[in-house]
Amino acid sequence: MEEGDEFYPIVIQHQQVLEYLEGKPLEVIYDLHNTGDFVEDIDTFTGATIRGNKIFSAIKDGLNRGLY
To answer: Quick check: 68 and 35 in contact, CB under 8 A?
Structure first.
C-alpha cells in the first residue's frame, strides 16, 4: 500500500501494534485494551482510533482454533 492511500494510516497503526507485541510474552495482548499507550492516533482520514479490542479478539480466536 502506498503512503498516499486513504487507508495507509490504518496500516501504520496495525504495524505499531505488531511492533509493540513482537518478542513479548503472550500476556501482553491484554495491553490491546488500551492501545493509546503505544499507538499513535494518526488516522486523520476517518478520525477513528485503532480497535485494539478487535485485534485482541482475533488473536484469541486464532489461539483457540489452533493449527488446521
So the answer is: no
Q: What is the pTM of this model?
A: 0.76
Which H or E run contains 57?
Answer: helix 52-65
Half-sphere exposure of 55 (CA within 13 A, CB side): 23
Which cell numbers in the block locate residue 50?
485503532
CA atoms within 13 A on the CB side of 36: 3
CA–CA separation, 58 and 67 (whole Å): 15
Chain segment 3-58, per-residue pLDDT in tens: 888 888 888 888 999 999 999 999 999 999 888 888 887 555 555 567 888 899 99
Query: Quick check: 43 and 13 in contact, CB under 8 A?
Result: yes
Q: For 44, which DSSP code? A: T
